[in-house]
């Protein structure tokens, strides 16, 4: 089956299950990326196998393995699960040639449309687990007056003097999420967070807001506005995309309404800017964030299946 046909059938199949998924074009090999293709009796699969490496002190290093091997998929034919199984076997052969066996700083990652159930069993058989989700929330055009207030909670834009509070909240969030395999507790994480937050807080209009509960700063939310989200906007069929980078609430303030107030404020800010959708990442196994975000109007769009190390 020709690559153009695979891409077209794959796009049509995904469009039928989720209208917010973007279209597909045939994969093309590039630097650090090769195209793998397999065929079964009646189905076919194409995959773009790539490798991304980051420095240990890079801003995004705490949220990923330092070497990430990624496989983007396109499946076609009446039995896509069988084609996926064959493609994963082919990719494993490729990984054994390029990845160091047992290196825990490597990960094999397969992004899959969350509503595309075909091949989930095959993913598990190859040692992958659904660890991280990109969730989507369509803009709410029905609440122009803004969110209702929460008793005892005041939300204000963060300023440079909030750096210590922001770092403390960020570290608490990071430590909690590390339990679910989506972030990494490495030496130097505090310095990386502090540098990144200081740069944001020194912007003319920092994209962070602080929530005070009866005068105590116990929560924060961080957003990226349309125009800053080019790195992820191609993952959704929308023009103006906002991104909710993080929302952290101190343990002492959980179940107080602080998190809901921060989320409502962030959504109002982005809705006022004319965003079509807001995206965010969350750990699939997190028993707090998963139900929280879906109660705020989000739903899964992409699920990132991961195996770590990449080669066992």
Automatic annotation (TrEMBL):
Residues 153-312 form the N-acetyltransferase domain. CDD domains: NAT_SF. Keywords: Acyltransferase, Transferase. The keyword Transmembrane helix does not apply. The keyword Cell wall biogenesis/degradation does not apply. This is GNAT family N-acetyltransferase.
